[in-house]
Specification:
Transpos_IS110; 3 domains; Nucleotidyltransferase, domain 5; two-stranded antiparallel ribbon; 18 helices
């Protein structure tokens, strides 16, 4: 078996052609450019049975280039235990390439999932949206720090960037027009210009992501979960990609780093904090989604209360556990290609034990979740119906007096029952009030007699 191992670098890469039977090896240094690597795959790699490389930035397009020449590829993660060498006295690019080839021959390397070029671009766009959001928050904090350092008060929270923006703009001034004691106003003008530009670019990216989400059935499916919004659905789809690459929910939990660390030695076996492996952005957004789902999802609230047990010290642990369950449910929905079904959640929960009647009833009576477009359409429909009902009520006559009919027989029929009814004597109100005002004095006189 011949293996072509690549130790990729920013400028140059080292190629190692290794024969597992004869253990012969040859090395080649080539620039990390498309035309040079293309010649390597055509010449040195034409007889190679496997192309091995470590996971890094350029490994995506190099893997696509190798597969275009019909080569079997293996992209491995250097974070695995097999790659952690101890007591190494020499480390060179040739040694790293040779280690890749030898460990691939022994089958000690674990491959990582390589998404398609389209999905890599989508994942990069989702990550870039969060990067822009972080830059905007950093710019806002810088502006707030200047006002605090100069003893000027501005509004708190988002109010400062909406209704309170006029007060902030009143202090900005061009840097060329600032005096030596107000140079911070020139810096403020530059930062506000950057803030407006970043906000505009962020809105453009969000609109583009929403357009992609409308055409992606996976994002639509995950948005049916109560408490899961468009940003959470985009990140989950970007990370999971192919759901069938996971065998069970435990692998999904470990992939997101939401499982506890295990310390085992002899009779000692205890669990520590979560591993925090995998994508930190996905883990963060899952925890935020878990806290938000407590207001919209009765199933999530029931799980949280069961794990928390009304103990203050277990609130955060319950939130992490709920985030893990949401990730597993999202993976199962993508795998089975099914939307959120409260009845299905009742069946799965009851298969592990009894379910409270109150929680079961709230799940069964749960209405389907509406996205933003459906909610807007419903509000427009309700407003249209209310307008039509108002117009119809105005068109109908509201006369309380009924006109007498022209038929004389009907008059006599209506008049006869009124004649038979005896008239009730109306008691005057004044006499009643007078009789109530005198009784005590009259009563006392009678009792004395």
């Amino acid at each position: 078996m011949k293996i072509l191992a690549l130790d990729l670098g920013k400028f140059n890469s080292v190629c190692c052609v290794y024969d597992s039977k004869t253990r012969k090896k040859t090395f080649l240094t080539t620039p990390t450019k498309r035309e040079h690597l293309q010649s390597v795959f055509q010449n040195e790699g034409r007889l190679a049975d496997l192309v091995v490389m470590e996971s890094c930035g350029p490994s995506g397009w190099i893997n696509d280039l190798a597969q275009s020449f019909e080569r079997n590829t293996l992209v491995c993660s250097t974070n695995e235990e097999a790659w952690r060498w101890a007591n190494v006295k020499r480390k060179t690019d040739k040694d790293d390439a040779l280690k890749l080839a030898r460990m691939a021959a022994m089958g000690e390397l674990k491959s990582v999932h390589m998404p398609s070029p389209e999905h890599r671009e989508f994942r990069s766009l989702v990550k870039y949206r969060k990067t822009l959001d972080g830059r905007i928050n950093k710019t806002k904090n810088t502006i707030r720090a200047w006002f605090v350092n100069h003893g000027i008060e501005i509004d708190k929270g988002d109010k400062a960037w909406h209704t309170g923006r006029k007060r902030i703009d009143s202090f900005r001034k061009g840097i060329q027009d600032c005096t030596p004691d107000e140079l911070w106003k020139g810096q403020l003008d530059i930062e506000l210009t950057i803030l407006d530009s970043l906000t505009e670019q962020l809105d453009t990216i969000v609109k583009r992501l929403e357009e992609l989400g409308k055409n992606d059935e996976r994002i639509k499916r995950l948005r049916t979960i109560p408490g899961v919004g468009p940003r959470t659905a985009e990140i989950l789809v970007a990370c999971i990609d192919a759901p069938h690459r996971f065998k069970n929910g435990r692998q999904v939990s470990a992939y997101f780093g939401l499982v506890p660390r295990q310390y085992q030695s002899g009779e000692t076996d205890r669990n520590g904090r979560i591993t925090k492996r995998g994508n930190p952005l996905a883990r963060t957004i899952l925890v935020e989604c878990a806290w938000a789902s407590l207001r919209y999802n009765p199933w999530a609230k029931g799980i949280y209360e069961r794990i928390c047990g009304k103990q203050k010290t277990r609130k955060k642990k319950a939130g992490i556990a709920l985030a893990r369950k949401i990730a597993v449910i999202a993976w199962a929905m993508l795998r089975d290609e099914k939307d959120w079904e409260p009845k299905r959640m009742v069946e799965v929960t009851e298969s592990y034990g009894e379910m409270p009647d109150k929680l079961k009833e709230s799940l069964l009576n749960m209405k389907p979740k509406e996205n933003s477009d459906q909610r807007k359409a419903r509000l427009r429909r309700e407003a249209r119906q209310a307008k039509d009902a108002k117009q119809t009520s105005k068109a109908k006559p509201t006369n309380k007096k009924t006109r007498p009919s022209s038929n004389p027989s009907s008059r006599t029929e209506k008049a006869t029952p009124q004649a038979t009814k005896p008239k009730k004597k109306s008691t005057p109100v004044k006499s009643a009030t007078k009789s109530r005002s005198k009784p005590r004095r009259a009563g006392k006189l009678v009792s004395r007699d």
